[in-house]
Specification:
Order of helices and strands: HHHHEHHEHEEH
Shape: flat
Radius of gyration: 20 Å
Helix content: 40-55%
Strand content: 5-15%
C-alpha cells in the first residue's frame, strides 16, 4: 500500500511541476483578444452550434490583416455576410463523427473502438487559434472536445 501512495505522491509532484512550467511559459493571446469585435460578432451571431468552433478555427492569414479586412468590409456599402467572411479567412475545425461501435461489444472492444476518435497527435502553435500545443500525442475526453481539457483528459 505504501508503494501505491508513493506513486500518487510522485504523480502529484509531477503534475505540480508541469502546471508551474506551463504557467511560466509565454502563452499566445486568446482569440477574443486577437480578433476583438470580429470574435464578439461571430460568437453572438449563433452561426456555429458550438461556441468553441470559432475559437478553434485556424486563420489563413495574419490575424491583424483579417481584423483590418473585417473592419473595412463592415464599413463598406457592399452587402456583408459574416459566414462568407469567416469561410474565406479561416479553416474551421472538422466535426467529430461518432464511430459505429456495436452495442453488443464488451467494454474492452468498446474502448479500443473509441481510441482512434479520441487520440490526437502532437500539435504546432498557430497564432490566432486557441489551441495550446502539446509536444506529444494525447487523449481527449470525447464529444465536442478537440483538445485536452485538464482533469477530464487526465482521468
Amino acid at each position: 500500500m505504501l508503494q501505491g501512495k508513493n506513486i500518487f505522491v510522485q504523480l502529484g509532484i509531477s503534475m505540480i511541476v508541469l502546471f508551474m512550467t506551463m504557467a511560466q511559459a509565454q502563452l499566445p493571446p486568446a482569440p477574443d483578444t486577437i480578433y476583438g469585435k470580429l470574435f464578439e460578432d461571430v460568437q453572438l451571431s449563433g452561426m456555429f452550434r458550438d461556441s468553441k468552433t470559432f475559437s478553434d478555427a485556424i486563420p489563413q492569414k495574419t490575424p491583424a490583416s483579417i481584423v483590418k479586412d473585417y473592419e473595412a468590409w463592415k464599413a463598406s456599402a457592399t452587402p456583408f455576410s459574416l459566414a462568407e467572411f469567416i469561410g474565406a479567412n479561416f479553416i474551421l475545425p472538422a466535426e467529430q463523427v461518432a464511430l459505429d461501435i456495436p452495442k453488443t461489444a464488451n467494454v474492452q472492444a468498446h474502448v479500443h473502438g473509441l481510441w482512434p476518435m479520441l487520440e490526437r497527435s502532437s500539435d504546432k502553435l498557430v497564432f490566432g487559434s486557441s489551441l495550446l500545443p502539446l509536444p506529444y500525442a494525447y487523449i481527449v475526453p470525447g464529444g465536442r472536445f478537440r483538445e485536452i481539457y485538464y482533469w477530464d483528459s487526465y482521468f
